[in-house]
Amino acid sequence: MSWQSDWAYNKYWVMAHSQNAYNEIRNLAKNNQWDKEKELQYQEIVQYLKNIPPTKATLVTAYQHIWGYFKKIAVPAEKQKYLKYLDNLSPEKDDLGPFLAQLTDKYQVKYLQNSRIIIEIKEQNK
After folding, report:
1. Whole-structure pTM value
2. Burial of 104 by CB count in 10 Å (0-12 exposed, 13-18 middle, 19+ buried)?
3. How far apart are CA 18 and CA 26, in angstroms?
4. pLDDT, tens digit, for every residue of 40-57?
């Protein structure tokens, strides 16, 4: 798997765990100059984040980015539900993630369907 594919898979998951780590990885990927050393740094960051729980702020950022895929196609009721879930969001009470996962399937957004954050949300809510 190329680092671009792996990054596409992990991008929003990383964002949901740490904005700093997200920025660090984006910096690594700058100018598309990827090498073994950067690959190791990238893998270390992703491994490290497994032990970093999302915060309300990091979840909000990640979910707002994900919502960007739906904001022009969602019906008004979905937009209202999104805003309600966003207002009540906390790492302990996350109704927004599962809702976004439902929208991902409803609107067949392949990029998101193949993303780690959506895959993991679906696993947790089986």
Report:
1. 0.94
2. buried
3. 12
4. 999 999 999 999 999 999
